[in-house]
Design a protein that fits this description.
Length: 644
């Protein structure tokens, strides 16, 4: 049955001669699967997966238009590669979606290693963050780049793509020209807003003349630089008044990376104020799409219904669950796997590793493992005992049950969730809590016998006689026994489970890794004064780059005190004594907490390893890590059961 809850989200949209079946665009990503210059089968299957899931537009991301302008591997628009791009467009079309390609030139932000041509172009002469010499563009350079965009657009249309999207945001070349921060030119391409948009408009005009009047062309653009000395949404409205002569849709982002790569600490739909201002200016006639942490169909529908946008661009929501559109349309919203905004996807992609999602183990592996919710039934039904009800155990139990096995899950406490239980008490981790609740619901709805307050005793195993035991007993805190007086401190996670221990306002946390810093942010958010002591020279060193940017922003905005290079030696009634720069100091605190790491709770595995034909350990029980390790290991352990 069609879900009438989202009448605007699933309303078709027509641009030029192209009909788009709904208002959901799958944003471009998965950048490093073209290392050889040719798209891989993994990339094609990944995009097909998005189309199969129901998105109206599916985008190939960051197709750089020419060598010398690359921030990622060059996807060469050559005759030899044409069949593969044709197959990519066909794979998207097979499921009724429109195929879009995002065309880019990265200007002063290029990475030299991805370019053969070493003459790099930007608004002004400079040496960029990667040590590359950037040359101020001449008029001839501008003509060359505009031609490169037009050539690339023609090429992808020839391959069968439906839409050419020109990337004009996120501090790439065109945005660099628009920005008064980066564009310090004194000629007709610098200075006034009219001058700074001259080259971007010239390029759009050039592309439109080349592709003709019927081919759809859109742009992704930052609606504001969100800084006092940058361009504003009013400036962008003026730009779009001119640009709409050439383009058919504008996707509105923001310039700051912590807005278009927002962590869990940022608001949802955080750029919708910009799309709303553009829409309600009354000066723009083309459709406007919002992007930025739009994670649910409810929020997407509200943005369109309220007139803040004509459609939505979703990236991570469709990474965690590509079937979000179909599930929303099919009245099974509760089946949508929530995105946690952990940025694991972006972080792995940007270090050229396998593109992964913490909560979607199939992501990037569709060519090898198949599509989404199509589970191959096991060759033989087995009796499976899962020991532990944290994320790894729940995922193993869910996947085992979906494959047809008879599953029992025993959990030694009185509830499911494991280490994720804290999320219900954290004032900032709402996305993580939503995911924890989803896992619990899925475990409870499937044919799984859940035994709480139960350990995997010999009597239980004899009674169940399982064919397979999956041990997911998690991890326990490391106690820094070398610190004198540590018995007077508590593990930081107890701040959630036992709030009485933080009934005082002045708190010191020993350990400035990701766990210590995030608990400190939560406590500071609830009105506590928190000091974090970290022995290393950097805090949250275990966080990857993109998520770390979000942590840094929160630390700065909340003025969280973090003292690095601080080795704690003793806990006294006055606080935590530490050494820094050869001197002893005291961080005053009424409550001392510690978060110096976790260790695998693997003793149950060594007790159980011989008590069934198959016994495997997963999650933190095997190797302490983050949620992706727990969920993935649980998923794949379940896939191996009953395979002969």
């Amino acid at each position: 049955m069609y879900n009438q809850s989202y009448p605007n989200l699933f309303k078709p949209l027509k641009i030029r001669d192209l009909t788009i079946k709904n208002r959901i665009m799958s944003s471009p990503n998965m950048l490093f699967h073209t290392v050889s210059g040719t798209p891989t089968n993994f990339y094609i299957s990944y995009l097909e997966h998005k189309a199969r899931g129901g998105a109206g537009i599916v985008s190939l991301g960051e197709a750089t238009v020419c060598d010398g302008g690359c921030h990622t591997p060059f996807m060469e628009p050559t005759l030899n590669n044409l069949p593969m791009y044709g197959e990519m467009a066909a794979a998207i079309h097979e499921h009724g979606a429109a195929a879009s390609v995002e065309l880019c030139h990265d200007g002063e932000r290029i990475k030299p290693q991805y370019n053969i041509n070493k003459r790099f172009l930007g608004p002004v002469d400079m040496v960029n963050m990667h040590g590359a010499q950037i040359n101020a563009m001449t008029k001839q350079d501008m003509d060359f780049v505009a031609n490169a965009f037009a050539d690339a657009a023609e090429y992808y249309f020839l391959a069968g793509f439906d839409i050419a999207q020109i990337h004009m945001g996120h501090a790439w070349l065109f945005s660099q020209f628009m920005s008064p921060v980066s564009n310090k030119r004194t000629d007709e391409y610098g200075g006034s807003w009219e001058n700074r948009i001259r080259f971007p408009l010239m390029a759009l005009e050039h592309i439109r003349k080349r592709i003709g009047p019927k081919k759809p062309m859109t742009i992704r653009i930052s609606g504001s630089e969100r800084r006092p000395d940058g361009f504003t949404v009013d400036d962008i409205i003026v730009f779009l008044q001119h640009a709409q002569e050439y383009i058919d849709m504008a996707e509105i982002s923001a310039e700051d990376a912590t807005n278009f790569l927002a962590s869990t600490y940022m608001p949802h739909a955080l750029n919708a104020d910009l799309s709303e201002a553009i829409k309600k200016s009354g000066k723009i006639d083309i459709p406007v799409f919002a992007l930025g942490s739009i994670l649910t169909p409810e929020l997407a529908e509200d943005l369109i219904q309220s007139g803040r946008a004509d459609g939505v661009s979703m990236s991570r929501a469709l990474i965690s669950d590509p079937y979000l559109p179909k599930k929303a349309m099919g009245v099974i919203d509760e089946e949508i796997t929530p995105c946690m905004r952990c940025l694991t996807c972006t972080d792995h992609d940007n270090v050229s590793r396998h593109f992964i999602c913490s909560v979607n183990p199939l992501l990037g592996r569709e060519a090898r493992l198949g599509f989404g919710d199509t589970f191959t039934k096991a060759n033989a039904v087995k009796k499976v005992l899962v020991v532990g009800g944290g994320p790894a155990g729940m995922q193993a139990a869910i996947t085992s049950a979906r494959r047809g096995h008879k599953v029992v899950l025993c959990e030694k406490t009185d509830s499911l969730g494991g280490l994720l239980k804290f999320s219900g008490a954290d004032s900032l981790k709402h996305d993580l809590h939503r995911y924890k609740e989803y896992l619990v619901r899925q475990t409870e709805k499937h044919n799984i016998q859940i035994m709480l307050n139960t350990t995997a005793s010999d009597d239980l195993i004899e009674k169940l006689s399982p064919d397979s035991i999956i041990v997911a007993t998690g991890s326990t805190p490391v106690v820094p026994a070398q610190i004198k007086g540590i018995e007077n401190a508590r593990h930081a996670a107890e701040a959630y489970s036992n709030p009485d221990i933080i009934d005082r306002d002045n708190i010191v946390i020993i350990g400035g890794g990701l766990v210590g810093v995030e608990i400190a942010l939560h406590l500071q958010n609830t009105g506590k004064k928190v000091t974090v002591l970290e022995m290393q020279d950097d805090y949250a060193a275990d966080a990857m780059r993109c998520y770390k940017l979000g942590i840094i922003r929160q630390v700065n905005e909340r003025s969280l005190e973090i003292i690095t290079g601080a080795k704690c030696t003793e806990i006294t009634p006055e606080g935590a004594v530490y050494e820094k720069d050869g001197a002893k100091r005291v961080a005053a605190g009424d409550v001392i907490l510690y978060a110096v790491g976790m260790k695998s709770h693997d003793e149950p595995y060594f007790e159980l390893y011989s008590k069934a034909p198959s016994v495997v350990q997963i999650g933190d029980c095997k190797k302490v890590g983050k949620i992706d390790g727990a969920v993935h290991s649980g998923y794949f352990a379940a896939l191996d059961i009953g395979v002969m």
